[in-house]
Amino acid sequence: MKTKRPHMVSKGYIEGWADEKGRVEVIDIQGRRGLRQPIGNATVVNYVYEPAVLTRDLEAEYGRIESDGIPVIKKLRNGDDTVTSAEMSAMIAFLDMHLDRGRYADQAKIRTPAVLIKTGWQLEDAELSLGDRLLLSQSIPDVLRLTTLGLEHWPWRVFETQGLPTGDGAVLLWCPAKGAEICTVSFPLSSTRLLAIGQDLPEGVPLIPRLTSNCKRWIIGAPGTLNLNWAGESGNATT
């Protein structure tokens, strides 16, 4: 089933940044604009995950992952960090989905030329949409999958903080040194809660600058926390 108005950053997730009127601040890096809007309109791009060639319903798959993962996010956000193995699996799947979406968040309008080999070896020119490319990337061995890291066996902690933004690049992978293996995965649960899986992050680590610079199109914050006049790479997205 086609989803006309899918969110590129999950609606149920960004509720953690909304005010009492259900509004968040959004910076559209690609569009060079910032605005305050209801979460129902934030990061929406019409039919963005609709495949043009492949037949799998990617948006339905994402919907199932969100249905399983967002209750875990809300549980952790509310201070209960005693997650079950099933909840860990649901959370890891959500992080993988968020990571996948983030890799292509600035490529919603790009169409990739392709040649289809049809029954009888007939060739047909086609253009792959973002949905097609996301589906194909799931079978590429070089694309990192968090499920391969064994995160369910790493320590899980939720830290209290202030003024955290989020966005399409909010899943951060940390290494102790360049070229070393990943030791920590961090992900904001709200503007005041940060999930860290693995080793503790060093004191003073530049979390917010790294998060905002890792976002390709969307940065989201609680009302009053973002510089909505910020544009492109020359400014600072946070106040």
Can you walk through the features of this model?
The chain has 239 residues and is of the alpha+beta class. It is 25% helix and 21% strand. It is built from five helices and ten strands; from the N terminus they run αββααββαβββββαβ. It has helices at 11-14, 58-77, 85-103, 130-137, 207-214, and strands spanning 23-28, 33-38, 112-118, 122-128, 156-160, 166-167, 172-174, 184-188, 193-198, 218-221. The strands form three sheets. It has a four-stranded antiparallel sheet, with no helix packed on it. It has a four-stranded antiparallel sheet with strand order 5-9-8-7, with helices on one face.
Mean pLDDT, as a whole number? 88
Shape: globular
Distance between the termini: 41 Å
User: What is the share of helical residues?
Assistant: 10-25%
Low-confidence stretches: none
Query: What is the alpha-carbon Rg in Å?
Result: 18 Å
Question: In sequence order, what are the helices and strands, one letter per element?
Answer: HEEHHEEHEEEEEHE
- Biggest sheet architecture: 4 strands, antiparallel
- β content, as a range? 15-25%
- Estimated structural class: alpha+beta
How do the strands of the widest beta sheet line up side by side? 2-1-10-6
The total of beta strands comes to 10
Number of helices: 5
